[in-house]
Amino acid sequence: MASRERTFIAIKPDGVQRGLVGKIIQRFEERGFKMVALKICAPGRAHLEKHYADLSKKPFFKDLVDYMVSGPIIAMVWEGLNAVKCGRMMLGETNPQASLPGSIRGDFSIQVGRNICHGSDSVESANHEIALWFNKNELVNWESAMYTWIYEV
């Protein structure tokens, strides 16, 4: 089997406030991904500015950070085959209007500024984001009893 990969997924304040946490987690579990870290948090402005540093020159940066500090966030790490690419596909396009029905954004959101989730866009960014949001001791290494039913071994 190809190597396992980890991705960072965050449920943004709108997803938490709208009670979509369970539905989003369920989709990743049903797809066959394994959760290795989960926490609810209210990161400060400095943390979010660091997380979104690549967008710091964009005109919407301040509004994005203001929005992200407006409520709790669910930070998660999921593991599985092609977790980054598949996770992005499950989330849908950044602009929910371009997201297909069946994707998280396509089913639950309408505007870019309230698009429910963040997902890593590459393995490199996933590794960076996981390290930014979780200490190594918060990542749980475990084997799923369903592994051989999900993957060809």
UniProtKB/TrEMBL annotation:
<dbReference type="GO" id="GO:0006228">
    <property type="term" value="P:UTP biosynthetic process"/>
</dbReference>
<feature type="binding site">
    <location>
        <position position="115"/>
    </location>
    <ligand>
        <name>ATP</name>
    </ligand>
</feature>
<feature type="domain" description="Nucleoside diphosphate kinase-like">
    <location>
        <begin position="4"/>
        <end position="141"/>
    </location>
</feature>
<dbReference type="GO" id="GO:0005524">
    <property type="term" value="F:ATP binding"/>
</dbReference>
<feature type="binding site">
    <location>
        <position position="60"/>
    </location>
    <ligand>
        <name>ATP</name>
    </ligand>
</feature>
<feature type="binding site">
    <location>
        <position position="105"/>
    </location>
    <ligand>
        <name>ATP</name>
    </ligand>
</feature>
<feature type="binding site">
    <location>
        <position position="94"/>
    </location>
    <ligand>
        <name>ATP</name>
    </ligand>
</feature>
<keyword id="KW-0547">Nucleotide-binding</keyword>
<dbReference type="InterPro" id="IPR034907">
    <property type="entry name" value="NDK-like_dom"/>
</dbReference>
<dbReference type="InterPro" id="IPR023005">
    <property type="entry name" value="Nucleoside_diP_kinase_AS"/>
</dbReference>
<dbReference type="Pfam" id="PF00334">
    <property type="entry name" value="NDK"/>
</dbReference>
<keyword id="KW-0808">Transferase</keyword>
<feature type="active site" description="Pros-phosphohistidine intermediate">
    <location>
        <position position="118"/>
    </location>
</feature>
<protein>
    <recommendedName>
        <fullName>Nucleoside diphosphate kinase</fullName>
        <ecNumber>2.7.4.6</ecNumber>
    </recommendedName>
</protein>
<feature type="binding site">
    <location>
        <position position="12"/>
    </location>
    <ligand>
        <name>ATP</name>
    </ligand>
</feature>
<dbReference type="InterPro" id="IPR001564">
    <property type="entry name" value="Nucleoside_diP_kinase"/>
</dbReference>
<keyword id="KW-0067">ATP-binding</keyword>
<dbReference type="GO" id="GO:0006241">
    <property type="term" value="P:CTP biosynthetic process"/>
</dbReference>
<dbReference type="InterPro" id="IPR036850">
    <property type="entry name" value="NDK-like_dom_sf"/>
</dbReference>
<feature type="binding site">
    <location>
        <position position="88"/>
    </location>
    <ligand>
        <name>ATP</name>
    </ligand>
</feature>
<dbReference type="GO" id="GO:0006183">
    <property type="term" value="P:GTP biosynthetic process"/>
</dbReference>
<keyword id="KW-0418">Kinase</keyword>
<dbReference type="GO" id="GO:0004550">
    <property type="term" value="F:nucleoside diphosphate kinase activity"/>
</dbReference>
<comment type="similarity">
    <text>Belongs to the NDK family.</text>
</comment>
